[in-house]
Amino acid sequence: MKKINSIWYGGKVILTGAILAFGVPAGIGILPGESKILEVIRMGSFVLGMLILLGFGIWLAIELHQDKRINGFYDRNRNRKLKIDEGIYECQACGSRKVKEKDERCSVCGVRFQK
After folding, report:
1. Are 93 and 79 in contact (CB under 8 A)?
2. Backbone angle region of 111, left / alpha / beta, with phi > 0 → left and psi within -120 to 50 → alpha
């Protein structure tokens, strides 16, 4: 699953939620006259918009927490080589996969590997 802020729909979701939560009820409130149907539509739109905004906020908070944990992992393992497959390693500093088991330095970025 792609991240929210890497597929560019976060702003569209926030705009949709804001329109449903505030725009539609304000527009109905401006209309003259009282109607039970319009009142139900106004309240329904507000509730739906707030649910969208709340759900999206929770989703974003979860994603930001995951990002923080992933960044912490990479910070702790930055100058190490990670075994990917038999005889194939990856430099955690630059992502190069041209690292061999016996290498003490990355041939791409030059970082010295910790043991």
Report:
1. yes
2. beta
Q: How far is CA 4 from CA 51, 56, 61, 113, in A?
A: 18, 10, 11, 34
Which secondary structure element, helix H or strand E, spans residue 84, and what is its range? strand 81-85
Determine if the pTM surpasses 0.70.
Answer: no
Is the CB of residue 80 less than 8 Å from the CB of residue 114? yes
Pull the structure tokens for residue 7: 């597929």
Q: What is the pLDDT of residues 56-101, one digit of tens each?
A: 999 989 988 998 998 898 888 788 888 888 888 888 888 888 888 8
Helices (H) then strands (E): counts for the chain: 3, 2
For position 88, what pLDDT does the model report? 85
> Other CB atoms closer than 10 Å to residue 110's CB: what's the count?
10
Which pLDDT does position 50 carry in this prediction?
A: 98
Among residues 100, 115, 10, the alpha carbon closest in space to that of 57 is found at: 10
